[in-house]
Amino acid sequence: MAISVLQDGPAHARRRFLAASAASLCCAAAGRRAFGASTLTQATILVGSPPGGATDKLARMFADGLGRRYADRVIVENKAGAGGAIAYAHVKHSGVKDGSLMFLSPAYPIVISPHVVSTLPYDPLRDFAPVGIAGRSMMTIAVGPAVPAEVRTLEDYVRWCREHPGQALYAAQTGSSQHLVGTSFSQAANVKLDNVSYKGDAPALQDLLGGHVPAIILPIASAIPQHQSGGIRVLAVTGAKRSRFLPDIPTTGELGYKDIVFQDWLGVFMVARTPQAVLERMNRAMNEVSGSEQGQQALANLGFEPVQVTTEVFAGMVKADYERYRGIIERTRFREVFEKSVGR
């Protein structure tokens, strides 16, 4: 019996070791899948607007950086339409909580649309978990070749609109931050301005350059290249202070429109009840991208300001902005403007 123990003991030990190792690997793999660890093969960032716009460019810049920090491969998928609602509803109904599916959004579908669209297929505060901020951008008020070259200032533009009421039009996606800027400016300047709706910045800018629409409300990131090349004329920016990217352009506040200050975040969201460990790992990766020298240069090239905050801070900002925009919308009666624009 003693001889049997001596002969079988090493074999039993080896089997026990292999079994324990296999169990350990399985548990580790399950843990990585459950908490979205760095071995994710692929992650997808949805964008609710067409390719070529500021949000799309920002998403692709982050996908490139996150591919080395968050997953083996990060791709961007455009699901344009309904002010981003198609993309966001997709994430809501996906049930994907391992960190492999998310969306990058400007602020307005999260903090403006819920106050004006009664049929919105998502509740931003209930259905999504804020992850982190990709960047911050102010708006611009700009004119294109359809407006005479002598119109060089915002005052000139207001005067021109009064003299040509039939051409007092601007391009913006209906219900967006740009639309709200246009409505606020129209009321503050006491001049009638009508919105021509577009599905995204890229098609709106194309029509502006083609002379099909005279003016546009545009994120500064999309406006900078065309302003610098002379294709459009930026008349004002909507930040609390001048942009470092366009230091010669005055703010709306400087020009007497103190209440027109729009300088919002663009952020990443995952489905609600995604584990906090997943959110925090993605948040750290995003902050590494935007905080790196390469990331800061890439953001500057796109016209975005870098912002690094924790998931908790971002969640607080989302809730605060949600309430802040509720007040702006009530003051400007923007819901009525929106419903009239869509024929309701």
Task: Characterise this structure.
By secondary structure, the chain is an alpha/beta fold. The protein has two domains: 42-137 and 264-332, D-Maltodextrin-Binding Protein, domain 2 (3-Layer(aba) Sandwich); 138-262 and 336-341, D-Maltodextrin-Binding Protein, domain 2 (3-Layer(aba) Sandwich), CATH 3.40.190. The chain has 14 helices and nine strands. The protein has helices spanning 2-35, 54-66, 85-94, 108-111, 113-116, 124-127, 154-163, 177-189, 201-209, 220-229, 276-291, 293-302, 311-332, 334-341; strands at residues 42-47, 73-78, 101-106, 128-143, 169-172, 194-197, 215-219, 233-237, 263-271. Strands 1, 2, 3, 4, 5, 6, 7, 8 and 9 form a nine-stranded mixed β-sheet that branches. β1 (42-47), α2 and β2 form a beta-alpha-beta unit. α11 (276-291) crosses α12. It is globular, with a radius of gyration of 25 Å.
Topology:
Layout: H1 2-35, E1 42-47, H2 54-66, E2 73-78, H3 85-94, E3 101-106, H4 108-111, H5 113-116, H6 124-127, E4 128-143, H7 154-163, E5 169-172, H8 177-189, E6 194-197, H9 201-209, E7 215-219, H10 220-229, E8 233-237, E9 263-271, H11 276-291, H12 293-302, H13 311-332, H14 334-341
Parallel strand pairs: 1-2, 1-3, 5-6, 5-7
Antiparallel strand pairs: 3-9, 4-7, 4-8, 4-9
Helix pairs in contact: 2-12, 11-12
